[in-house]
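Chapter review: from sequence to fold.
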Amino acid sequence: MRSISFPYTIHKGLAIPYIPLALKIGKTWRRFWAFVDSGATYSIVRTSEIEDLNFDYKRGKLVNVQVGDGGFIPVYLHQLVISLDDFEFPATVGFSSRLGVEFNLLGRKDVFEIFDVTFSDSRGEITFKTTPDQH
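The token string follows.
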């Protein structure tokens, strides 16, 4: 098993689980920051983050995702490779131009199946520990 930890990031005076990661989009690795959200089913990236890439995100599977205010936003899902630290794994990642928060989201689908995720507010860190059947 492998353990990867990230310190919380200070945002507007609060320590939050906002971490760096990379996505392989086509042949390009793109670095992002994402809020680790145990309440989000899908990982979602704002389309403004990929405008410069030759990537037609709308070719993904369209789902309407319910957000915190009860409304729905369109999200286009793709199977991509995520890199946390240097651990690479396939995951479902969605793209939306209507994500109403300032953060990209790292949600549960695939990520929380590969890792046991521990939020430690007391230590100010988040830890991803691979499950026994992962490398």
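Two observations follow directly from the output. The first helix runs from residue 111 to 114. The helical segments are 111-114.
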